[in-house]
Amino acid sequence: MAMRRFDPRQAQRGPQIRIxxxxxxxxxxxxxxxxxxxxxLPTHEALRRASxxxxxxxxxxxxAEPPVCKILxxxxxxYDEKKKAAEAKRKQSVVEIKEIKLRPKTDDHDLDFKTRxxxxxLEAGHKVKFTVRFRGREITHPQVAQSQLQRILxxxxxxxxxxxxxxxxxxxxxLLVAPKPAVMQRVAQARALAEKARQQGKHHxxxxxKDEAIAKLEQQLSDRDEAEGGHDDDDDDDDKSEG
Length: 243
What we know:
Elements: H1 8-13, E1 27-31, E2 37-42, H2 43-52, E3 56-61, E4 68-72, H3 74-91, E5 97-102, H4 108-123, E6 127-133, H5 142-156, E7 160-169, E8 172-179, H6 181-199, H7 205-242
Parallel strand pairs: 1-4, 5-6
Antiparallel strand pairs: 1-2, 3-4, 6-8, 7-8
């Protein structure tokens, strides 16, 4: 039996809307451009009516029996659908998980900085995952990491709930926290105000400044992780030499 070759372009395109001559069924249920139900018509008759009005015949429900088509301006229809999708995406509340990396040797100053970073992420409506990575003989002292995470939880308890308690997985210990409902309510209110300001044509520099601050904070965390990683390499070399 011959096998059909998979065409990745078909997967990317998804279902296609049939319009005009691409509608090949013998008859369709037609909706006029003003929303009036015109009933079931032969497809060639529906095409003629659309053409007389300088419009298109667009299949809007291919699964109906017979398929439902509407007479409309297809170019305007595509524009409106794209606009609706963009609006829905903008209103959608997306919760990201921000990761903060620690080491058992992370000093108190860095720990406080990363705790403040977690607080800002939570207040922006994001979840935060703390990952403590062990190297060499550090794995024999998991209580150090547990103490760090308990200290962080103590400072975040007013705004965060624990979703996944500290747990070991191979050579890492992880903790996942999420904003409390009251925090998420404030975030939703702030987003609603920003959306209202956008619709009224006002500039919302405040939200842009918050987004910029979050991005800057992530970069600072990344820089600290890289610096800490450099020290880790030195620690590994010391472990090997001692071994």
